[in-house]
Amino acid sequence: MNRFDNQTVLVTGGTGGQGSSHVRAFHAEGANVVIGGTNAERGTALADKLGSRAHFARLDVTDESSWSAAASAAERTFGALNVLVNNAGVQNPPAPIESTDEATWSRILDINLTGTFLGIKVAAPALRRANGGVIVNIASTMALGGTAHYAPYVASKWALRGLTRTAALELGRDRIRVNAIHPGVIATPFIHEPAAGATAAIADFYSPEPFAIPRLGEPTDVTALLLFLTSSDASFITGSEHVIDGGLLLGPALQTETA
User: Fold this and answer.
1) Catalytic residue check, 153
2) What is the 3-state secondary structure (H, E, C) of 147-195?
3) Domain annotation covers residue 257
4) Range of the domain at 178
């Protein structure tokens, strides 16, 4: 028996590098998957490839009515909503605070923070109707420290930590668990392609060589942790934060010379 048989999972940003990995893995484990996103062509193609247990829902995470439509589609198509993965997120072009315009600040927080808030708000009643469920918010290692030139993104991810813990407290008695994952540098277009308005990608000036596990993370690394946190194996875990960064936050792993 698969871990997610007879369960329905909604993944936002479901056509991206991490999101599509999550969607495929949940589907392989028996889940019905709702692929939330704004790219209808890619989302529909992925749903068609996966088959009858997959459905694309156009979802603008900054719009509460769009969230309501996606949650309703999950219940209408598959009978219930059991898991929400708040994966959608965007990065700002690097700039010091003094050079960051208010429109950029607002856009990043609208998608990364308000989008997650709206997801929890709208999904909670559906999860309650399913007699409980799980919400996982995908944050970042940038939520655990400061990073120059990325103030909007850092602020949005720091705020997700408090939102996660508050939601866990509010929803725990309804058998709804809420946790956060903090990925480090994961090999996706998010890392290998410049953010909108930027001229260089993060991968252009980042090397994992000094760190304990000297490689970029893969989407499947994050997916494996996500599957655990949303499974019954993690039934006593809520309000927690899980770092998956290959040791990035530990600092350089200084190597002594060997004879």
Assistant:
1) yes
2) CCCCHHHHHHHHHHHHHHHHHHHHHHHHCEEEEEEEECCECCHHHHCCC
3) no
4) 8-239
